[in-house]
Write a structure and sequence with these properties.
single chain, 440 residues, alpha/beta, Rossmann fold, 3 domains, 5-stranded parallel sheet, 4-stranded parallel sheet, globular, binds flavin mononucleotide
Length: 440
């Protein structure tokens, strides 16, 4: 932001540090009203933030909630865009979320920019950065049309009336923890939790996010990188380590708020950053109970699924109340409970898909080059074989190199290319027998 300001002296920049003023905005709504008035006078609004945990930091999430609750109409028609820094791990979900919320506010969202965290040090980036800002500024001043990307969300009106559940899922001797963001007014979510937990044989241990006494959002100080210890002394880390990391299965439960879960849930995830980039929840069966229009919230679904993939947990199911009737939700919950219980006894570990595989590689490369700060991650990665750089696969590299050299000989290349499919299938014959097509 400072770089933009210094290079655009003809523009006046007005900065609002959201996290710094959040408490005051919550306690004194008139202060927020004043700031919103100032924001609404701007020709262009730049949402500028570091990507935190697949999304925007919890502090900014809360700020967006306050705007949506009390000032939903005041930024209508204003031009805006996002400027973020990150290591390009799920920066697209953070940008999509912000664009969707801005569109909900009736703002005109211009093409955004996601910078790598050290990009500003590169001349080539700086040149393009200034061009981007110049273009954005011009588009805003020329009243250019802004392309929209998301449909408005239709609220879910369904009221869940559960029947009497039966205990059907054997969890004897296992510790199941429910991490819940439900408040009394969340009728559907509270009913879903109650029905689901009754289906399980043993008592479920409930952790209410609102009672955890989390003092604040992650400050990004990275002190946790060395030993995995957070600077906050509010007991969150202890609870996370002693009650959540030790559970045999976890149920997460939350209602949607704007286009994600609540800022409180976001704070819970941001603060779990003391785990660094280590999948310490690996292998744990997880089930999500979500109340809200999940099918319309692609970013939230991507978060739920990709978070499970990257953290190597076993995502048993995501059950939402977006259903035709209560009987169907009863059935889905009962089935989810059975599968959660079975995942604890006989887990099915499925190969991970692109977002999780790609995300883990980004972490691997990042931690390798930042081990001085993320020492705890580095030691964990060394111990658990996370550093799976292809360069260390010596025999595979040697075989590839030999073939690479041989392929320069036209007759060999012709032969290999002619038999490509057969050669690719040959290793599998050890497992399934001959794959030669049978002549009739
Ligand atoms: C709690 C926390 C969560 C983060 N989550 C992500 C993430 O999901 N994706 C990503 O690319 N970077 C993530 N990062 C890295 C930051 O986005 C990145 O370092 C950013 O450049 C920090 O900006 P700052 O120096 O302005 O704080 C995270 C950092 C922290 C502290």
């Amino acid at each position: 932001m400072r770089f933009l300001e210094q290079n655009n002296p003809e523009n006046t920049f007005f900065h609002l540090h959201v996290a710094r003023h959040l408490r005051s905005f919550e306690r004194h709504p008139e202060k927020l009203t004043e700031e919103i008035k100032k924001i609404a006078e701007a020709d262009l609004i730049l949402w500028s933030f570091p990507v935190y945990y697949f999304l925007i930091p919890s502090q900014l999430k809360r700020f967006m909630e306050l705007i949506l609750e009390k000032h939903a109409k005041e930024l209508q028609g204003k031009y805006c865009t996002c400027l973020t820094t990150s290591i390009h791990f799920f920066d697209h979900t953070a940008h999509d979320y912000m664009q969707a919320v801005c569109e909900d506010l009736g703002m005109k969202y211009l093409p955004d920019l996601s910078a790598g965290m050290n990009d500003l040090l590169k001349q080539s980036f700086r040149d393009n950065f200034l061009k981007w800002f110049d273009d954005t500024n011009k588009r805003a001043s020329k009243n250019s049309p802004a392309v929209t990307k998301f449909l408005p969300v239709k609220a879910n009106q369904f009221k869940y009336e559960p029947r009497q559940p039966t205990k059907s899922s054997d969890t004897k001797g296992k510790r199941v923890v429910l991490v819940s963001d439900a408040s009394e007014s969340d009728h559907n979510l509270v009913s879903m939790e109650r029905f689901f937990c009754t289906c399980l044989e043993d008592k479920v241990e409930r952790i209410a996010l609102k009672d955890l006494g989390i003092k604040g959002g992650c400050r990004g100080c990275l002190n946790c990188g060395w030993e995995g210890k957070c600077i906050y002394k509010d007991g969150f880390q202890k609870i996370f380590r002693e009650r959540i990391l030790t559970a045999d299965a976890i149920i997460f439960s939350g209602s949607t708020k704007d286009r994600f879960l609540s800022a409180r849930f976001k704070m819970f995830f941001d603060r779990s950053f003391f785990l660094g980039h280590r999948p310490e929840l690996a292998g744990k069966p997880i089930l999500w109970l979500v109340s809200g229009p999940l099918k319309q919230l692609h970013t939230l679904r991507e978060f739920l699924e990709s978070h499970a993939g990257v953290s190597k947990t076993l995502l048993v199911d995501i059950v939402s109340d977006e259903v035709e009737n209560s009987e169907r939700l009863d059935a889905l919950l009962a089935d989810g409970a059975t599968r959660l219980a079975s995942a604890m006894q006989k887990p099915i570990r499925k190969p991970r898909m692109f977002p999780a595989v790609a995300g883990s590689k980004i972490f691997r490369d990042f931690v390798y080059l930042a081990s001085a700060i993320f020492r705890a991650d580095h030691l964990f990665y060394k111990k658990t074989g996370f550093y799976d750089f292809p360069q260390s696969k010596r025999s595979q590299r040697f075989a590839n190199f030999s073939l690479y050299m041989a392929m320069h000989i036209p007759s060999v290349r012709k032969k290999v290319q002619h038999q490509m499919t057969r050669l690719m299938l040959r290793p599998y014959e050890k497992i399934v027998g001959s794959l030669e097509s049978k002549k009739s």
